[in-house]
Design brief:
There is one protein chain. The chain is built from twelve helices and ten strands. About 35% of the residues are buried. The chain is globular. By secondary structure, the chain is of the alpha/beta class. It has an eight-stranded mixed β-barrel with strand order 1-2-4-5-6-7-8-9, surrounded by five helices. The protein binds ligand C2E and magnesium ion (MG) (3 copies).
């Protein structure tokens, strides 16, 4: 077996590479039509205050219902869209969907919620991001404070000077800024200090084995303390059990998000979260 691996290594490597390239070309070709054919959908996952499980808002999560391929995960198609330079366009569509939904829910009498939108590394680097966001908020006439923009630490690593300007621009509009998947990227505490971040989202990999795993307990507790010391809110994602929810609330985590509290759902179904699906979780 070892001998075979050694002999075929280069061959297998190039086969794998070719497959990855084929997938990019294949997905990319279909992705170009996806926007036009309305195959992209924004799902909404509820976010709750940890203390009392009051709804605080939603995270918009992109879904691609491809006619030929079925539902394609964003983890699979966003890197392709990014490589093909399509994320500014797709991202713009996501912002518009989120703002339109805020307007619609406001018009239906819902109050006191935010919608979080994920942005990719290239979107953060895009020179017109601030104008795009401002335009979309104005178009749908929604308060900027209701929009929460999530970005990963890794997306903030390049062109730090430009990113500082971009984030300052977003803050001056009044939107909220969150650091997604916190703890998994190449985070530097010096950067954390420089950027106007409102919220840290603890990555789900640290939540999964709570409260049994002592290391994860220590990491999560430390992130919560760090965030609070820096004047930030701290949220946990990937909360799948009541034990995790209770443990995180006990540590002072501000917000919770995960399958235990609510799945990402299409708009029509997500509205039910306003009327307290959380109650079923509390019993
Ligand atoms: P993310 O922003 O960290 O989103 C959290 C992911 O965890 C989502 O996966 C969500 O469906 C999933 N999740 C939520 N609760 C639980 C739970 O309790 N357990 C587990 N195991 N998973 C949970 P999803 O929807 O597949 O999205 C994957 C990633 O794709 C997102 O990670 C985000 O980085 C990216 N993404 C999604 N939508 C967009 C978008 O509109 N724009 C950009 N740029 N990226 C997006
Ligand atoms: Mg996110
Ligand atoms: Mg995340
Ligand atoms: Mg993620």
């Amino acid at each position: 077996q070892a001998k075979r691996d050694g002999r075929d290594r280069i061959g297998e490597f190039s086969v794998a590479q070719k497959r990855a390239l084929d997938e990019r070309v294949m997905l990319g070709g279909r992705l170009r039509d996806a926007l036009r054919h309305d195959e992209l959908v924004l799902y909404f996952q509820p976010q709750y205050r940890a203390l009392d499980h009051e709804l605080t808002g939603f995270e918009g999560l992109l879904r691609w219902n491809c006619g030929e391929l079925g539902q394609v995960s964003p983890a699979r198609f966003i890197p392709v869209a990014e490589a093909l330079g399509m994320m500014p366009e797709i991202g713009c569509w996501v912002f518009a969907q989120a703002a339109r939904q805020m307007r619609e829910w406001l018009d239906r009498g819902h109050r006191g919620f935010t919608i979080a939108v994920n942005v990719s590394a290239q979107q953060v680097q895009h020179p017109h991001l601030v104008e795009q966001v401002a335009e979309v908020l104005q178009r749908y006439n929604v308060p900027a404070a209701m929009l929460d923009i999530e970005m990963t630490e890794s997306a903030l690593m390049e062109n730090v000077a430009r990113i500082r300007t971009t984030l300052a621009g977003l803050k001056s509009l009044g939107v909220q800024l969150s650091l997604d998947d916190f703890g998994t990227g190449y985070s530097s505490l010096a950067y954390l200090k420089q950027f106007p971040i409102d919220k840290l989202k603890i990555d789900q990999s640290f939540v999964r084995d709570l409260p049994a795993d002592e290391d994860d307990c220590a990491i999560v507790q430390t992130i919560i303390e760090l965030g609070h010391q820096l004047g930030m809110l701290v949220s946990a994602e990937g909360v799948e059990t009541q034990a995790q929810a209770a443990f995180l609330a006990g540590l002072g985590c501000d917000e919770l998000q995960g399958y235990a509290l609510g799945m990402p759902l299409p708009v029509m179904d997500a509205e039910r979260y306003f009327v307290g699906v959380r109650d079923s979780f509390l019993v």
